[in-house]
Automatic annotation (TrEMBL):
PROSITE patterns linked to this entry: DHAL (PS51480)
Protein name per its UniProtKB record: Dihydroxyacetone kinase subunit L
Matches recorded under SMART domains: Dak2
Domain DhaL: 7-209
Keywords for the protein's UniProt record, in alphabetical order: Kinase, Transferase
Single GO BP term: glycerol catabolic process
Pfam families: Dak2
Species of origin: Rhizobium lusitanum
CC terms in the record's Gene Ontology section: cytosol
GO molecular function: glycerone kinase activity
Family annotation (SUPFAM superfamilies): DhaL-like
């Protein structure tokens, strides 16, 4: 059983910022096809701001809740696009899971995956099948929880979550959007992956690599 503390989470945000910088052009290109081409910029700016702000917290005094809440606030302030409030809500909900804890358990991380998915759904009111990031997050959280219920360690739960997110993102190609900017395109969005679902895969892939102990 591994425990996850403030420093692990600071390193996780550094990893997320690095991954989004790396994926920025691909995510902007996806958004260029069915949206306004800024999704990579939004995710890079958001996680860069979050990583910088959490790196300035002192692990001696800041608990995991403070890390997630700081990340949420910074992400929201940095991002003007729809992904700003969606991820800010996800991060605030993660902070609520961590409340009162000096470190997080493997079960807490599975709860955090659920909290991310639920936060995004509550904020954006999208259901599975509407061609949004929910199509990656909802199955990822469910697969992660299911793996945990089968007694698997966190690394395997996150691997199951990542596989489900990848399948969910792939499935958005066959969907017509009914939420967000790309809903204006109707069936012209068919055949193209939703950028928010693609970036969700990047986020979950960072979680998986970071906790692969
Ligand atoms: P914007 O469309 O404002 O430019 P982004 O480009 O950052 O915002 O994000 C676009 C992504 O946001 C979409 O690909 C989709 O996954 C996600 N999205 C948009 N609206 C919603 C919603 N209501 N619920 C969940 N996700 C949404
Ligand atoms: Mg956009
Ligand atoms: Mg935009």
């Amino acid at each position: 059983m591994t425990t996850i503390g403030t420093e692990d989470l600071q390193a996780l945000f550094a990893r997320l910022a690095e991954a989004m910088a790396h994926e920025k052009d691909r995510l902007c290109a996806l958004d260029g096809v069915i949206g306004d081409a800024d999704h990579g910029i939004a995710m890079e700016l958001g996680f860069a701001a979050a990583a910088k702000a959490v790196s300035e917290l002192d692990p001696a005094t800041a608990d995991p809740t403070a890390v997630f809440n700081t990340a949420a606030k910074s992400f929201l302030n940095a991002v003007g696009a729809s992904s700003g409030p969606l991820y800010a809500t996800a991060l605030m909900r993660a902070g609520a899971v961590a409340k009162g804890k000096t470190s997080l358990s493997e079960d807490d991380m599975v709860d955090i995956m659920t909290a991310f998915a639920k936060g995004i759904q509550d904020r954006g009111k999208a259901e599975v099948g509407e061609k949004t990031m929910v199509d990656a997050w909802a199955p990822a959280a469910a697969a992660c929880r299911d793996a945990r219920d089968r007694g698997l360690p966190l690394a395997d739960c996150l691997a199951a979550g990542l596989a489900a997110a990848e399948a969910g993102a792939e499935a958005t190609k066959a969907m017509i959007a009914t939420k967000g900017r790309s809903s204006r395109l109707g069936d012209r969005a068919l055949g193209h992956m939703d950028p928010g679902a693609a970036s969700a895969v990047v986020v979950i892939s960072c979680f998986k690599s970071h906790f692969a102990f």
